[in-house]
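Reminder: ligand-aware prediction takes two inputs, not one.
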Amino acid sequence: MVIRNVELETVCGVTSTLPENTLPEFAFAGKSNVGKSSLINALMNRKALARTSSQPGKTQTINFYNINGDLYYVDLPGYGYAKVPQSEKVKWGRMIENYLHKSQMLKCVFLLVDIRHEPSANDKTMYDWVVYNGFRPVIIATKLDKIKRSQIQKQVKLIRTGLGMEKQDILIPFSAETKQGREDIWNLIDKMAAG
Ligand code: GTP
Ligand code: MG
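Here is what comes back for the chain with guanosine-5'-triphosphate:
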């Protein structure tokens, strides 16, 4: 994918009305701090357009990035961050669910999990929820640079089993540091945007 132009076009908080976009949308979901915003930056060839932080809970809105006037990357707030008050968690949860449920242009949900860990109960719930809504989630196993090459297969298996992934479901190991996996993700998006 050639990135010519990117623009943060719409930012939605809990009380905002979601945009009625006419371009295909690709959403990035996953627990707080897993690397959603970092992945989006890598896919946009931008260092810091999507704000990232070592502190979980950085992204608190749904952010729509217009890519080349062709499609959107949708950066979602993370779930499962303990320090966020329960009332906020419920609001964000509803906002995310509402988006995934209502968007007419959503082509694919990329569900990010940390390659170092077994998926959490929240990850599993999110996976099931995406499936329930009629999507085949594509799993991105993030922070690939943090494990040894010899551990990759074992971790991939742990994630596949933990989420209860179907055989044909796609899992792509990815690192925002080395950009490993980026080409595969671009190729998928290109294919789905066209189809
Ligand atoms: P929220 O917005 O809080 O939900 O988090 P997020 O999922 O958007 O995570 P973000 O991209 O802000 O990254 C969280 C932290 O992990 C940051 O300190 C990133 O630099 C780091 N990080 C993200 N991806 C990678 C990766 O592939 N490798 C390494 N080593 N660090 C990463
Ligand atoms: Mg973020």
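DSSP finds five helices and seven strands in the chain. Residues 125 and 178 are 30 Å apart (CA to CA). We will return to this case in the review session.
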